[in-house]
Amino acid sequence: MTQTVAIIGAGIAGLAAGCYGQMNGYRTQIFELHDKPGGLCTLWKRKGYTFG
Fold it and tell me: Could you tell me the residue range of the domain that residue 24 belongs to?
């Protein structure tokens, strides 16, 4: 039976954890609040300001 790892957040660390988990035989599930992965490595706009 394959063990599953749940990862909260699809930022760089969450994506890396998912990759390394799968490389080591785990089934991984990544949960992200936003519609795009990448966390602080993505650009997003709010109230006229661009964050990135």
Answer: 4-51
